[in-house]
Amino acid sequence: MRTINACLVIMITILGFTTSFDFASIKEIQSLKQNSFAASLIETISLSLSSSKGNGVEDVQKMLGELQAQLENDQKNDDATFNAKNGEYDEHIKKLAQNIEKLAEEIAILAARILELEGLIAQAILNIQSFNERIGNLTQSIVDLDQKLEDDKKYYTTKAEGLQEVNVKLLLVNEKLSKMIGSASGVKVYSHINQTESEKRDIAYRKEQEALKTSFIQISKSIPLASNLVEMTLQADQKALKKLMGIINKFAEQCLEEKAEAERKLVEAVETHKQLKDQMLNEIELNKKAKAKQELNKQHYESEKAEKETQKKEKEDRKAALEREKEINEKLQQNLRLTYEKEKKDRAEEIAVVGTLIRIVQTRLLKKINI
After folding, report:
1. 193 to each of 63, 233, 246, 327, how far by Cα in Å?
2. What pLDDT, on the 0 to 100 scale, is given for residue 203?
3. What angle do CA 197, 201, 204 make, to 5 degrees?
4. DSSP per position, 22-67
5. Which of 298, 304, 305, 284 is nearest to 123 (CA)?
6. Rounded to whole angstroms, how far apart are CA atoms 62 and 223?
7. d(Cα 58, Cα 48) in Å, to the nearest integer?
8. At a CB cut-off of 8 Å and minimum separation 6, what does 220 contact?
């Protein structure tokens, strides 16, 4: 527009010396006055022609030609400037879109990893809880195992001591019974199986003296045949005594066997306790190591998750900034395009006006002057 104004000033100066002519009265000119640029240009030409001398029409034609060329050149320059600037916007917006897309992909990858880490952290927490439960259960099992050993010790020790005591008492009974071997059982009869003849006579005499005070059975013992029967009874009692002592000996031996069995089971209980306790202690250590590893993994997962969340936040902020920048550039490009298209349209109208004026000058003014 500055170029156009300069040209108009030059035209006015030149047209000041051209031949006077009522340019605005031409009928075709009237339709152009609706355009502000055309109206201003027509008025300038009309005023100049009305006060001009010499070759004013030719000068007007020349200047209109130069103005038309200038307008077309300006449009050409504007086209080049717009295309270059619009291309820069396209390239910049394209790069912004690519960076935004890349950031979106990176954010999606980070989000997926964060979600995966959340799952790993949750699983590590469950694993740690599980190991704590196992350690607690094993610890309680050891307590129960120790208590069972104490109970077994008490039971088997008490049983062994009781059996030992029974054995001792049974042996004492046999020891007392052994003193009865060879003694006659009955009512106040003290002798041995291997009695001497004098002892036998003394016993018989005492029995005869007590005959009057005794029962029929006691009297019958003074008869020789009855004495033989008593002897046989004494022999039978000795056999029963020996049999009883044998039974007691067997019970005494059985007590010792059961005592030995109780002691063996106590040793077995101690060995089993040690084996199980060592196994449980080993399992506790293994679970503690596994738990420590899970705790370490959990720390790594939490650290990585925090790092990824920071990276994700930074990329999200960067993406948002690029999106704002892209939006601003798109608006600037749109404004550039609107301004360019408006100016191009206005210039096209100006070129059309100048072209029309050139045609009028050529067909009307020059023709009239030549006539």
Report:
1. 181, 11, 20, 136
2. 58
3. 135
4. -GGGSHHHHGGGGSHHHHHHHHHHHHHHHT--SSHHHHHHHHHHHH
5. 298
6. 195
7. 13
8. 226
The predicted pLDDT at position 323 comes to 97
pLDDT at 212: 43
Q: Which residues of 166-194 are buried (b: 16+ CB within 10 A; e: fewer)?
A: bbeebeeebeeeeeeeebbeeeeeebeee
Structure confidence at residue 226 (pLDDT): 35
Task: Output the CA torsion sign for 272, 278, 279, 281.
Answer: positive
Q: What is the pLDDT at residue 55? A: 59
Q: How far is CA 6 from CA 9, 10, 56, in A?
A: 5, 6, 18
Is 85 within 8 Å of 336 (Cβ atoms)? yes
What parts of the chain have a pLDDT lower than 70?
A: 1-35, 38, 46-56, 182-236, 364-371
Q: Determine the Cα–Cα distance for residues 249 and 173; give it in Å rounded to an integer.
A: 10
Least Cα distance to 60 among 356, 361, 370, 368 occurs for 361
Q: What pLDDT, on a 0 to 100 scale, did the predictor assign at position 26? A: 56
Tell me the C-alpha distance between 258 and 166, whole Å: 11
* CA dihedral (180, 184, 185, 189) positive or negative: negative
Whole-model pTM: value is: 0.60
Q: Which two tokens stand for residue 364?
A: 């009307």
44 and 14 Cβ atoms separated by less than 8 Å: no
- In this structure, which amino acid lies at residue 230? V
- Separation between Cα atoms, residue 27 and residue 16, nearest integer Å: 23
E strands, the chain, are none
Distant-in-sequence, close-in-space partners of 10: CB < 8 Å, separation ≥ 6: 63
From CA 229, how far away is CA 146, in angstroms rounded? 67
Interacting residues of 107 by C-beta distance below 8 A, sequence separation 6+:
312, 315, 316, 319
Cα four-point dihedral sign 178, 179, 183, 188: negative
Q: How far apart are CA 329 and CA 234, in angstroms?
A: 138
| Displacement of CA 355 from its chain's centroid (Å) | 78
- Are the CB atoms for 294 and 131 separated by under 8 Å? yes
Q: What is the pLDDT of residue 18?
A: 39
For residue 232, how many C-alpha atoms fall within 13 Å in the half-sphere facing its CB?
7
